[in-house]
Amino acid sequence: MEKYSVFDCSMIELDKHHSDRKGNLTVVQNGDTLPFDVKRVYYLYDVPGGESRGAHAHRDLSQFMVAASGSFRVTLDDGKVKRSFFLNRPYQGLYIKPGIWRDLDDFSSGAVCMVLASDVYKKEDYIRNYDEFLEFREISNDTSVKRL
């Protein structure tokens, strides 16, 4: 399996359709909008102030995260480099490739994190221990991580 870096993950701007009287509409469509077909959608909300979410990686799953409401920060880590993204627009999202550790924090009041995933939930796809993640990435635990 290819080992992606944090630089393979990127923000994707979605089409935004505006109407002065009726608000905005953004569409995500399989086979068109994202580089994978969506097989699962879930969302995080009511995250208490100061709390964080995530703290895991996926072996095979790709994800697209959107701040459907409010804002939050996503920090990606490939074992060598950390890169942070601030999500705060419902027409932009972060494309996260497999094998990347992610932490979510700095949730605003009322924030909703919507996640579109490339597969259904599979417990065996999760890596929840950072040392196991480094083993998966074939990285020595004494390597210092560079933050961007």
TrEMBL record:
Out of the domains of life, which is the source? Bacteria
Q: Name one Pfam family in it.
A: FdtA
Q: What sequence ranges are listed for the domain Sugar 3,4-ketoisomerase QdtA cupin?
A: 8-137
InterPro entries for the chain: QdtA_cupin_dom (IPR008894), RmlC-like_jellyroll (IPR014710), RmlC_Cupin_sf (IPR011051)
Name this polypeptide is given: WxcM-like, C-terminal
Task: Name its species.
Answer: Bacteroides stercorirosoris
